[in-house]
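Quick note —
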Amino acid sequence: MSLEAADEPLLDRLGRPALSVDLLAVVGYVVVAVALLFRAGVYGTPLAVALGVPLLLFVPGYALVSALFPGATPDDAVDDRTLAAVRRHGLSGVERIALGFGASLALLPILGLAISLSPWPIAPWPALLAVSGFAVGCSAVGAVRRSRRPPDRRFAVPLRAWVRRARRAISRGSILDSAINVGLAIAVVMSVAAIGFAVAAPSPSESYTDVSLLTRNGTGELVAEDYPDAIEQGASEPLVVELTNHEGESTDYSVVVELQRVRDGPDGGARVVEDRRLATFTPSVDAGERWRTTHEVTPTMTGEDLRLTYLVYEGDPPEDPNSRNAYRWVHVWVDVTG
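Predicted structure written out below.
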């Protein structure tokens, strides 16, 4: 490395076309966001929302735009904004940011369709990995495509020009003008932070608990299908009970499992005429965490169309647990043969 390169200011080195600072920032943000979102206790919190919104609504679109349009610099701006001219001259930074949001909104349904056609379930983690992988891949393609263009025809973040303009604006103005500019900048940052907090912080009405019944398929993957429709009395069938705590705080639950014989009620609804309690679970689940357990279902009465019901309560269950007083509940229908 030459002496001139070693003495080159940091802003000059970051602003060189050979270094894709914006794409490095995209990849860095993806790595940090994914690492934090996969940490226990982060998912479902305001921090997760604050990290996930840019990751979903801006990062993949910006990376795609960078891969499609690797040129140019601000000097390439032209009045002719046809597609051919854009491909030849490139996009400005403002245009890239605007298209980043639009392209991200268009990409999300496509990525969701791709996940639905894959072996992965449609869940937050496959979606997060799909968006992150797409963004990193497009960033790599964009960096390679930029490197193949002449240095004066590559898009580069004009850091030095931004700093120069800021210094000029401050130095040429009076102290009062400078103070007003700084105050406006602080006000804008605080407003954006306030809006971000309002978006990220869930209101009390958004607190809830998810409950699911799952089975394992032939590959051992948990799926919400293929439930046992017939069980022989005395035999056992495994079901996986899953609770996900979105209450915003650690919660003590009670899960009461009942096998119920139901008949049509006078109002047309189901009326329980006989029930047997099969099990009770009392997990404590931290905010944003998921609890699972495998329940070996062993029926204690026979009949057709018996309702296997999982009643979820916060805290201790009542003396007569049923679907009317349960906080959440799920069920499957089974035939139990003698």
